[in-house]
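Researcher: We're teaching a course module on how sequence relates to structure. For the next exercise, students receive a sequence and then see the predicted structure as tokens, so they can try to spot secondary structure elements on their own. Here is the exercise chain.
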Amino acid sequence: MTPKTSLIETDELERELKAPDIVVVDATWYLPTEPSRARADYLSEHIPGAVFFDIDEIADEKAQTGHMLPPPEKFSSRMRKMGIGDGQRVVVYDRQSTVSAPRVWWTFRVMGAQDVSVLNGGLLKWKAEGRPLMMGEPTPRTPRHFTARHNLDLVRDVDDVKKLIGDKSAGIIDARSAERFAGNAPEPRQGLRAGHMPGAVNFPYRQVLNSDGTFKSAPELQELFTAAGIDPHKPVVTTCGSGITACVLALALGEAGHLRTSVYDGSWAEWGADDRLPIEKS
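Model: And here is the predicted structure for the students to work with:
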């Protein structure tokens, strides 16, 4: 059975741009080693009508690691101000093909949104096809009520991960590069140990993407995950540097038909900073 897709194609989105129930969200985000220019890039060009989602601001300000999930009441408040409410269709993209858009897709799903998609190929594909763009601030949207319903089945915390490492009740997939996973390359955040969680499987997130930033087909993804030893009948937890590209894998797993997938929100930014937690290098 073909899994229900969480992707929307560029031609389909262009046809739907003026639909009253659709909201397009620019979720561009950059690593801490890069200049903080996401909003400036959004203002320079974005899909018409798109609103900007600040991943670092719409987060839990009390967390020790950045951009962890916000409390539901904060998320609801921010969505109201952005004009995103119940019953709307949300389409998320970023300007790096596919890096941070799945994080916002996952966040909406954690908060109970049902109809949320990622633009396949992102802004790069949209621009390459000569589709419309605008610059500056969009016309303000009318505030709407967003009812946050926390879906905790999609999230794992550090205690959950410690437990499943012990009982092996779920697989752990790490989306970081092979060099970072093995502990042979420095982390982009200061103060983190090098290596990976015991028993984790390395699966760099770019493996699920084509050269143009689109996701590979469901059969291709199924073949890749099977070759990596990922059991389709066993729960899977994805992780990465800080919970961003782990969501790329979560989306890809869903496209491949893995229905029991969750994301370790703190990821290596949390695990690698705690000397009490076990690590491996290889």
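Model: If you want an answer key for the exercise: The chain has a mean pLDDT of 94. Strands lie at 7-8, 22-26, 51-52, 89-93, 116-119, 155-156, 171-174, 201-202, 236-239, 261-264.
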